[in-house]
Each structure stands twice: as structure tokens, then as C-alpha cells.
Design a protein that fits this description.
The structure holds 2 protein chains of 2 kinds. In chain A, 48% of the residues lie in helices and 18% in strands. By secondary structure, chain A is of the alpha+beta class. In chain A, the strands form 5 sheets. A 5-stranded antiparallel sheet of chain A has the order 4-1-7-6-5, with helices on both faces. In chain A, strand 15 and strand 16 form a beta hairpin. Chain A is rod-shaped. Chain A starts with 12 loop residues before the first helix and ends with a helix. The relative contact order of chain A is 0.08. By secondary structure, chain B is of the alpha/beta class. In chain B, 42% of the residues lie in helices and 20% in strands. Chain B contains 5 helices and 5 strands; from the N terminus they run E-H-E-H-E-H-E-H-E-H. Chain B has a 5-stranded parallel sheet with strand order 2-1-3-4-5, with helices on both faces. In chain B, strand 1, helix 1 and strand 2 form a beta-alpha-beta unit. Classes of the chains: A alpha+beta, B alpha/beta. At the A-B interface, helix 10 and helix 11 of A face helix 1, helix 4 and helix 5 of B.
Chain lengths: 612, 121
């Protein structure tokens, strides 16, 4: 009676598909791959929005800043003018008191007084300090200046009194012909004079053309009159004041000089213009002339200040065009967008990197779990298989007496089936190791011919059953440095395959040569051959060539994958040469000297490096 | 000549039974189920060789090798299904004489390895 013992495919096609699906999931960690890009775009969008808003804010903020700054400048100028007014009043009242001491004061003494004190030097913005004599109508015709220089009152006017310029003290030389000029001949001056006379206080004129500047001069000036009475102090009533008027101490100045004597930095701003206006006369007395783009959109800030009875308006005009040039929202906007795009890209990159690493970690974790599971499973499978091997082995090797030939044949079949199972489990274990990058050869100097012979004799039975001859062309003295178990597995798998894919009465040739520092092993068969398109797939895990022969032979689909990994662990490579219908040759190249590499680096990476 | 005495430390019942059956063909075998019992036996009786499993509960092979004071230099064959390079190197560095894959040896081969190891010493 014949019994067929079949331990055909340990992994059937269904199980293989399930495994492939699982592995596919693990090896394609592309889920959520678009996330970093979406986040990056979001960051860019937020950045663009922020830069739009921010540029607006910046424009508004800087406008506000500028206007605040302008207000400060105006305040500085105003308080300076106020301060100036009071110091002018002081100068005027001091000089007026000279006449109390010496009613018949002379020009010489007037000059001497101002030379001795520093009133003029300290106030360079004052053009002069002078004295205007009050001449009643009856005295006009016979007017004689105190020095008797023959100065006449001019211009001739029909008026009840005249007020000729009598003394002048000034740092700059004055023309003689301004003496005798009657201030009251001019409406603006006359108004101020009469107001000063009646109030007893310093009064300023509206803006006027100063007499020393001539009629053509466009610069406007002002005069401040301080009344001097014949009595000590200011008389009580207007009538008494009019009757007792002696004259006026006065100053002449230009508002422009006043402003420009302030520290220049106050007026240095090129974005705006300073303007001083007399409010009641509505006359512009002074204006800086900074260039500006257009007259549109003037922002005007002003403050009024009262100086010796007149109201001045200090105005700072700022032009929108200069504001916009200064705080160009376009530039802010573009910079904002560029920045946010930059940050967006950085985010995308960093997040992508992070996700890639997380994926890798996850992948590694799964791979590790898988390896652990495989190792554990194969250990658990191997233990009982090892027990079976001992029990059947004892039967087979006559430990309990000699068996009959039929019994011996069955026991042999059981023994080899068990051996094959152990082989497959071992392969699984090595695959798990290869996947975890843990194949580390324990190399010794070995003789390839010896190991090849061992392999061939272990496969004799299999070859014999298909009447296949195995030729071995190896120099017995050849030596290489390799891991004997790994080396055995490489040859075993290749020769096993060669037998498997050979037709009956086929031929398998194993040859090993050393070319330079490289061992070249060729395992050839005259079998069915492999399509070129399938070369790469051949070395994939669980790949099996679909053919009648492979269906008949069965297998795990792990062999060539493992061979490739084992060869690579020795820093070698494997190649295929095949013609359909004529046969296949596997060529393995392994360096004869094994170079120990640093722990942790992947053999596969090293292999790649070598190839370059 | 008296039989050589072997101490077999193996936690798996089947394997312990199978190996002791094989080895008792030629040697006197004492078989125990974990490293702690093994250590007790090894320290209280004389043995010519110890066969030690690596993966065991209570006290594994590695712990046994660390704990056992091998005064008489008895050869120790470590046998296991673990054949990672690091495991092998560690076992040898801890005093094991040789390392054997459980699934590798047939009964005759197992006896031969033990016999060879005994004569080598």
C-alpha cells in the first residue's frame, strides 16, 4: 500500500493575499499626506489676511503717530511764542522806565542802554527796539527830533497827532531815512498805537510791511507798542492816558524769524509745512516751503496763541501724499504676504517632515510588532517540530529497534516533511529578521565547495525523484569570509528553486569562482525560464511565479526574498539571466572579505552606496 | 566505564521528554524544567555536561549562566531556537561552550555533539 504524504503549500493563496493586503497597508503610509499642505495654505491665508489688516493698522498708526508729533511741534512753537511775548514785554517796559529816570533821553543813551544789557543779543529775532515820540497836532509843523538832526515827520498826513520814529537800537545797521516816519500814518499801526495808548498795555499790530524793508518787500513783520506816559505808571482813565502820552517803546520783528530761532529740528520735518497766520487780519505771516506731491488731502493741525493782544494761529499742514510715501501700505502688504508665504512654506515643510517621521515611526512600530509576532510564532512552531524530529528521528535511526522497509519508508517521509516544516518556519524567522534589518552575519572563513556539497546531498532525494542531475563546478580550495548558515541558506534556496522549476531529466549547474575580490556563484537550470518583466517582482516577499509547475511544486514565496536579503547582508548582490523555455541563471556576487560595518546602519543602504 | 552524567534544563515538556529519551540512550540524564531547579541540581550533584535552554520561565538560560559558579569547568551546551548573533555571542561570553539550534540535530547528531563536546574537554 502506498500513502502519499503531502505537505504542500504551507501558505495557501488566500492566506497569501491576506498577508499582502496587510503588508500593503503597512508599507503605504501615505494617509493624511495632504495635511501639511493644507495647514501651510491655511497659514498663508491667515498671513495674507493679517498683512492686509496690519498694513491698514500701520498706516493708521503711523498717521496718528505723525499727527501726534505734529501737535507736539505746534505746542512747542506756541509756548515759545508765548514765552517770547512776555520777554518782549519785559524789554519794552524796562526801556520805557528809562524815561522815568531821564525824561529828555537821547538816542545815544538809548543805544548805550541796549549795548549794556543783552536784550538784543539774547533776542536775535528782534529787529530793533525803538522809541516813537507822541507829537500832538500843534507840534507837528515845528517838530524837532531830540538830537536836533533836522529830522522831519513824514509822510505828511492830516491827523490830530503824529508818532515819528525817534530812537532805534538795533544789532543791524539802520538807514537814517526811517527816522521821523510817523507810525500813525499807517492804519494798522495807528490802530495798535491807539489801543496801546488807551489800554496802557503792549499791543501788537496786524502784519505790516516794515518801513526799513521798503514797499516792495513781501516779508511781513509786526510791531509791538508799549505806551509811555508823562506820569509815573499808567493813568487811570482813557482821557488822562491820551493827554499824558509821551510816546511808545516798540519792537519790530518778523514772525518767521521768531519761529526759525527755535531749534531747527522742530521744523525739520519735510513732510509738512509750518504756517503762522494773524487771525483777525487773516494774513499769512510766515510759511515754510517744503515740497510735497499734491495739494490734495491736506491734514491741517493748528493752535491759537495770543501775543500782545493779537491772536496768531500756528498751523502745521501735512500732505496725504507724503504720508502715503512714508508708510506705503503696498510695501507693508507685499512684505506681509512674502513673510506669510515664507512661514507657510516653513510650516508645510516642518509639518511634512514631522508627519513623515511619525509615519516612519508608526511603520517601524508595526514592523517591529510584526517581527516580534513572527519570531514568537516561529519559535512556538519550531519547538514541537523539534520534538517531532527527535521522536521520528529515534524511530528512523533505530533507537527502538530496526524497522521493516515499509515502516522505514513512511518514517522517512514523515521525517522529511517535518524537516521541511522546520525549514519554512526558519525561513519565516529569517524573513522577520530581514524585515527588521537584523540580519547580522557571523562570518568565518568557509569553503563554498563543502557547503555546496552539503546542500546537494540534502537535495539528492528531491533531484533524484525528477531525474535531475546536479553538476558542481567548484574548486575545493576556494575560501571566502561569510556566515555559514546564511551561505547554506543562499545555495539551498537557489538550488532548490532550480530543481523545482526544472522539467524531468533536467540539469542544474552550480559554479563558484573568485574574480578579483569577489565570489561569483552561478546557479543555472534548463527549466521554464522567467519573463524579464518579472525580474523585480521575483525578489518580493510572497511572490511566486504563476505557472503549472509552481502550482504543482508549492512554496512559501519567501525563498528569493530571503536570498536577496542574505546576499545583501554580505554586501553582495544578485542578478538574473533568463530565457523563456531555455532556462535561468542566478548570479550571486559576494565580496570575499566581509567588512564589518557600524552597528545600526542598514545593509540595504550600504549596498546602494556601493553600487554608486 | 560508568555513564557520563548530563543535566538537561528545558522548560518545554515535549522537548524535555524527547531530548532525555534520546540522550538516555548513551548517558545518565537528569532533566529539570527551569533554571532555578537546574542551578540547584548543578550545585548539589556532579555532572559531566549541562544542556541548557535559553528561553525559560522562572530563571532563563542567561540568568543561569550568570548565577552558576562553574568550578569544575563543566562544558555547557546552550541550545535554543534563538540564533540571533547577539544571543549567541552573549551565551558564549557568559561561559557556554557551544551553541546548538534545537531543530538542527537529529537524535544521532545530538548524541554525537554531546559526545564530541565531552571528549574535547
Amino acid at each position: 500500500m502506498r500513502v502519499e504524504v503531502s505537505v504542500d503549500t504551507i501558505i495557501d493563496s488566500h492566506m497569501r493575499n491576506t498577508l499582502l493586503e496587510t503588508l500593503g497597508d503597512i508599507y503605504n503610509p501615505t494617509k493624511n499626506g495632504k495635511m501639511p499642505i493644507l495647514v501651510g495654505l491655511f497659514v498663508i491665508a491667515v498671513g495674507v489676511l493679517a498683512s492686509v489688516m496690519f498694513s491698514e493698522v500701520i498706516v493708521r498708526r503711523s498717521n496718528t503717530d505723525l499727527l501726534n508729533q505734529n501737535n507736539q511741534q505746534i505746542a512747542i512753537v506756541s509756548s515759545y511764542i508765548t514765552y517770547k511775548g512776555s520777554s518782549i514785554n519785559q524789554i519794552l517796559s524796562d526801556s520805557a522806565s528809562l524815561f522815568k529816570i531821564k525824561p529828555d533821553l537821547l538816542q545815544e543813551e538809548w543805544n548805550k542802554y541796549f549795548n549794556q544789557n543783552d536784550a538784543l543779543r539774547n533776542n536775535p529775532d528782534l529787529l530793533l527796539v525803538g522809541f516813537v515820540q507822541h507829537v500832538p497836532v500843534e507840534g507837528i509843523a515845528n517838530y524837532e527830533s531830540p538830537e536836533g538832526r533836522g529830522v522831519k515827520i513824514w509822510p505828511k498826513t492830516e491827523s490830530d497827532y503824529a508818532s515819528p520814529i525817534t530812537f532805534i537800537a538795533s544789532l543791524s545797521p539802520m538807514k537814517d531815512d526811517i527816522y521821523g516816519y510817523s507810525m500813525s500814518s499807517d492804519t494798522s499801526r495807528r490802530e495798535a498805537i491807539e489801543k496801546a495808548r488807551d489800554t496802557g498795555e503792549a499791543v501788537m499790530t496786524a502784519p505790516v510791511n516794515l518801513v526799513q524793508d521798503g514797499k516792495d518787500n513781501k516779508l511781513l513783520g509786526v510791531l509791538i507798542y508799549f505806551p509811555i506816559y508823562n506820569y509815573d505808571g499808567v493813568p487811570d482813565t482813557i482821557e488822562e492816558r491820551r493827554a499824558g502820552l509821551r510816546g511808545f517803546a516798540y519792537v519790530a520783528m518778523r514772525p518767521g524769524d521768531l519761529v526759525e530761532s527755535i531749534d531747527e529740528s522742530v521744523l525739520a520735518s519735510s513732510r509738512s509745512n509750518f504756517i503762522i497766520t494773524d487771525v483777525s487780519a487773516n494774513k499769512k505771516m510766515y510759511a515754510t516751503n517744503n515740497p510735497h506731491g499734491s495739494n490734495e488731502g491736506i491734514i491741517s493741525q493748528s493752535q491759537d496763541v495770543t501775543l500782545s493782544g493779537r491772536q496768531w494761529r500756528i498751523t502745521l499742514e501735512t500732505y496725504q501724499s507724503t504720508l502715503q510715501r512714508w508708510t506705503n501700505p503696498g510695501i507693508t502688504f507685499v512684505l506681509g504676504i512674502l513673510t506669510s508665504v515664507g512661514i507657510g512654506f516653513a510650516f508645510t515643510y516642518l509639518l511634512g517632515l514631522r508627519m513623515y517621521r511619525m509615519n516612519m515611526e508608526g511603520e517601524n512600530e508595526i514592523a517591529r510588532a510584526k517581527t516580534d509576532l513572527l519570531a514568537l510564532a516561529s519559535h512556538q512552531l519550531r519547538t514541537p517540530a523539534s520534538g517531532v524530529k527527535q521522536y521520528i528521528g529515534m524511530l528512523r535511526e533505530g533507537f527502538v529497534g530496526k524497522l521493516k522497509p515499509d515502516q522505514q519508508r513512511l518514517v522517512d517521509k514523515a521525517y522529511y516533511a517535518n524537516e521541511r516544516q522546520i525549514d519554512i518556519v526558519n525561513q519565516l524567522l529569517y524573513v522577520a529578521k530581514a524585515d527588521a534589518d537584523q540580519l547580522r552575519p557571523r562570518t568565518t572563513v568557509l569553503k563554498p565547495s563543502k557547503i555546496t556539497q552539503d546542500v546537494i546531498s540534502s537535495l539528492e532525494q528531491q533531484a533524484f525523484s525528477k531525474s535531475i542531475t546536479i553538476d558542481c563546478e567548484i574548486d575545493e580550495d576556494l575560501e571566502i569570509e561569510a556566515d555559514p548558515r546564511y551561505f547554506y541558506m543562499i545555495i539551498d534556496n537557489l538550488v532548490n528553486n532550480a530543481i523545482k522549476y526544472s522539467e524531468e531529466n533536467g540539469e542544474v549547474i552550480v559554479s563558484i569562482n573568485i574574480v578579483k575580490d569577489c565570489m561569483v556563484m552561478k546557479v543555472s537550470d534548463k527549466g521554464i525560464g522567467i519573463d524579464k518583466d518579472n525580474y523585480d517582482e521575483l525578489f518580493e516577499k510572497f511572490h511566486r511565479i504563476d505557472s503549472d509547475l509552481s502550482q504543482k511544486e508549492g512554496g512559501t514565496g519567501l525563498g528569493l526574498y530571503l536570498v536577496k536579503k542574505l546576499v545583501e547582508a554580505h554586501h553582495g548582490k544578485i542578478e538574473i539571466e533568463s530565457t523563456i523555455g531555455q532556462g535561468t541563471t542566478f548570479e550571486v556576487f559576494i565580496p570575499t572579505k566581509f567588512e564589518v560595518e557600524e552597528f545600526g546602519s542598514s545593509q540595504h543602504d550600504n549596498y546602494k552606496k556601493r553600487r554608486k | 566505564m560508568a555513564n557520563k552524567r548530563i543535566l538537561l534544563i528545558e522548560d518545554d515538556n515535549t522537548l524535555r521528554d524527547a531530548f532525555s529519551m534520546v540522550l538516555s540512550k548513551e548517558f545518565d540524564v537528569v532533566a529539570v524544567a527551569d533554571g532555578r531547579l537546574g542551578l540547584y541540581e548543578a550545585e548539589s550533584r556532579d555532572f559531566d555536561l549541562i544542556l541548557l535552554d535559553m528561553l525559560m520561565p522562572v530563571m532563563d538560560g542567561r540568568a543561569f549562566l550568570r548565577a552558576y559558579d562553574n568550578k569544575k569547568n563543566i562544558p555547557i551546551i546552550v541550545f535554543s531556537n534563538l540564533d540571533a548573533k547577539t544571543e549567541v555571542d552573549e551565551a558564549i561570553s557568559l561561559g557556554a561552550t557551544r551553541y546548538l539550534l534545537k531543530s538542527w540535530a537529529s537524535p544521532k547528531e545530538l548524541i554525537k555533539v554531546v559526545r564530541d563536546t565531552l571528549t574535547e574537554v
